[in-house]
């Protein structure tokens, strides 16, 4: 929960004036955000145009935005972009939903039972620092299809943030709320359903949103295994073929899809948690 | 909300008349609660009569909240026991409504659904509970906040809803742990009158913990002062001020007499507690 509740305006007190000033603020903020992305592109364009060389970093071989845009259009025109994206989305979503299910369920169990924690957590803590790339050989050995091994790798990427955030979220449900529910006659089932789950929801959604990001993060690693399709595979293949503009296309597509899907998770979180909306 | 249980449950009366028939007798029998340092209780015994409004008063760290938590079933005594209507307290239960200092409304439920919660736990269908909750909120002047989530309400409003949530099921005992402690003085005065108004209809047993002497004397039938750690009953004072009590009672002779007596005792106790803490440091 976010701090102690403060005295706030009553629901009827929200006037038109306040609403218009808040829309002005959000306008300003959106302009700043757009400017930030634009600045990045301008800087990128600048350093690649003058082939800037510094003692510690060189932009001499960095593809220019125009080259990247060209490569992007070429890829989109052949229709391959769509099939790469479709293949990657399937893998990411499959790994993600597995990780979300396992992470939230195990997280709730671990947070509620000390012996479950002792059984499950040491193993998971050992597995946690292992990077996705280190899993590749074992994933290939363990799973008969390369599709399954790729899903497994995206799964490992998403699991830990979801699991750890869920554990914390359940543990940090306000004990006073549980005490209040109990003194109103609630039994354990009701307490889990009506107090623990909604109480843990903000933390769980944070974990789910971070997990979505880390899932995309592992995509290139996962698709090193792939033989033909996937935006991570495309990025990796472009690297081996030294097609630098294509690498950047792959990077940007992953960046956009990753942040869009994290935002979608947060958006869904806001829908299921109407009490957290600022102007309700 | 779920409304499938509309016709599935037997029509249990969700608002049993818990009060009036001499129920709500609370007893602490030689209760000791050992904590690391301070805030515990030492063989404290206390009997609270049905329908009595008892204020527990004392310096901070005297164990007044601990006593309330033992009655509430949130803290198990090291030795001794708490009894409510002759039954030993083993945990929280719907016969004892609770209002905490910090707002403990469920943030994900509207005011109406918060108030409906206890009714549903007593077997009312969701629809029935929500209707009764709205009726109750209307009766205490909160109808227009029924659909508001707690975070959009002021501190005083949240506590009003919390009191409504605790009282709507007419529990035999109402436990209040410094419920107005976080409110400003004006709101606090309003809330005290609001509480007495609601209580007048129910007349159940109330245990009200406060460190504010004026508040205790204004609200209570009886004021019990606990000593600084180890907590023991130091003073047990009957407040024979007429009810309903207007604000002006604060200016009366009887009020001031009681106030002076309590204040001297508490001051003396606070000094002792302070000196003991100094000696330990």
Summarize this entry quickly.
With 280 residues, chain A is mostly helical. Chain A contains 11 helices and no strands. Chain B has 281 residues and is an alpha/beta fold.
Question: What is the strand and helix layout of this fold?
Answer:
The complex is a heterodimer of chains A (280) and B (281).
Chain A: H1 16-49, H2 65-77, H3 80-112, H4 114-127, H5 132-142, H6 146-171, H7 175-183, H8 188-217, H9 219-223, H10 231-240, H11 244-272
Helix pairs in contact in A: 2-11, 3-4, 3-6, 3-8, 3-10, 5-6, 6-8, 7-8, 8-11, 10-11
Chain B: E1 26-33, E2 41-48, E3 53-57, H1 64-72, E4 79-84, E5 87-88, E6 96-99, H2 111-121, H3 126-139, H4 155-167, E7 173-177, H5 185-202, E8 205-210, H6 213-219, E9 222-226, E10 233-238, H7 253-280
Parallel strand pairs in B: 3-8, 3-9, 6-7, 7-8
Antiparallel strand pairs in B: 1-2, 1-4, 4-5, 9-10
Helix pairs in contact in B: 2-3, 2-4, 4-5, 6-7
3D architecture notes:
The complex is a heterodimer of chains A (about 280) and B (about 280). Chain A is built from eleven helices and no strands. With about 280 residues, chain A is mainly alpha-helical. The model of chain A is unreliable at about 1-15 (pLDDT under 50). The radius of gyration of chain A is 23 Å and the shape is globular. Chain A has helices at about 15-50, 65-75, 80-110, 115-125, 130-140, 145-170, 175-185, 190-215, 220-225, 230-240, 245-270. Chain A has two domains: about 20-60, no CATH class; about 65-275, MetI-like (MetI-like fold), CATH 1.10.3720.10. Chain B has two domains: about 20-95 and about 170-255, P-loop containing nucleotide triphosphate hydrolases (Rossmann fold); about 105-170, no CATH class. Chain B has helices at about 65-70, 110-120, 125-140, 155-165, 185-200, 215-220, 255-280; strands at about 25-35, 40-50, 55, 80-85, 85-90, 95-100, 175, 205-210, 220-225, 235-240. The termini of chain B are far apart. The model of chain B is unreliable at about 1-20 (pLDDT under 50). The interface between A and B is medium-sized, with 31 and 36 residues.
